Amino acid sequence: MRRRDFIAYGSAGVLSAALVNEHPENTAEAQVAAGFSFDLELVEVFQEMIDGEVLFALALRDQITRALRPILNVVEGANVTFRITNRTRKARRFALAGLADDFFAPIPAGGSIQLQTIANEAGTYCYLDNSEQAASRVAGFHGMMVIAPSDGKTPTGTRTPYNTPTAAQSMLFDALGTARFPGEKWRPDLPSRTRTWVFNAIDPVLQQQLELGREVDQTAFLRTFYPRYFTLNGLSGYDSAHDKDTVPRGYVGEPVLIRCINMGLCTHSPHIHGNHVFRLSSTSPAGGVVKNQSIPEVDTWMLGPLARVDVLLPFVRPDDIPEKAWPPKQEKFPLKYPMHCHMEMSQTARGGQYPQGMITDWELLGDRRGGAL
Ligand SMILES: [Cu+2]
Ligand 1: distance of its center to the CA of 321 in Å? Predict the structure, then answer.
């Protein structure tokens, strides 16, 4: 089920009948010879929460696909142009956290701007509005930017998500498809082998303050922030557990890269059942991408505010099923395993409804595709 999202036109904030989509896979890219360009607009919207409550929110929208909070896909080294129109009631400032060009010029209310930068290092990044410090980011003006590598191969030619991968990253990606990980290498050419997870926490009081056009006192905002909804790709609970763009699905031997960013104010701890993940990269204090020199195998990974972490879900036979009992005969495929945040407050909606918070599934569709192991 898709939640309803509405664009709010004008300062009156009247609910419009225009339904809009939030599809992470609706990439906003429009590749041109010299680089990438995006036509985007800053909008005020109303979005339906998991319990039916409708809240005001801010968002960046792709002017062509109409997707809210699109994933911006570019390639390392390319020139990137953003043409942005600000349709909100306040001046806004688009920023790419973690890239060298962190601060562009402000965009006045009703104005348009063209911004340019260079995609300087492959990895997972985020865009946001920092004109009201953290407030408008948390209120929905955020999204992911993915810089794919221009080459991205290990010394032996295996594809990875990074240019000049570390020795540890190379060992892991080279090992995919061999004894420990029967099956295939990671496949960047298949969209189903990469998932993008954007985490956020929503306080209805903040959303209402922004809806009413009130100034947000930053100190008070940080002190009193009281999130009631916890979202993954803008969805919660049942919705995110059944969202085709959020749920990793595949057969044994089809590893999936999961790019994670936390746009909220709370620290989260995504925790996964069935398989462990391999933590590939994290965020440097200066905002860059840290390609890990050693790769921990974990079932929980920490995501502080503004953290960006890549993990690899290997899609191996789950350890809790003995080899002699594999493939399972009584329990039928697909085997569904949860990912839920270990910060327990995040599992609820409105402080009580469990499990309607930050959760999704991943699905093991069957033994090795084609049967050969
Ligand atoms: Cu659990």
Answer: 17
293-345 pLDDT tens trace:
999 999 999 999 999 999 999 999 999 999 999 999 999 999 999 999 999 99
C-alpha of residue 344 to centroid of ligand 1, in Å: 10
Which tokens hold the place of 307? 């953290």
Give 272 Cα–ligand 1 centroid separation in angstroms. 7
Centre of ligand 1 to C-alpha 338, Å, is: 7
C-alpha 45 – ligand 1 centre gap (Å): 33
Length of the chain: 373
Q: If we measure between CA atoms, which residue out of 247, 258, 244, 243 comes closest to residue 337?
A: 247
| Ligand 1 geometric centre to CA of 340 (Å) | 6
Given this chain, do its domains 5-148 and 167-196+220-364 carry the same CATH topology?
A: yes
> How many angstroms separate the alpha carbon of residue 211 from the centre of ligand 1?
36
Domain boundaries, given as residue ranges, for the chain: 5-148, 167-196+220-364
Reported confidence tier of residue 234, pLDDT bands at 50, 70, 90: very high
Q: From ligand 1's centre to the CA of 270, what distance in Å?
A: 9
| 1.10.760.10, 1.10.220.30, 2.40.440.10, 2.60.40.420: CATH of 167-196+220-364 | 2.60.40.420
CATH of domain 5-148: 2.60.40.420
Instruction: Report helix, strand or coil for 346.
Output: helix
Give the pLDDT confidence of 11-32 residue by residue, as tens digits.
333 333 334 444 444 344 434 4
CA 235/CA 270 separation, integer angstroms: 15
> What is the bridge-based pairing of β-strands 14-19 and 94-97?
unpaired
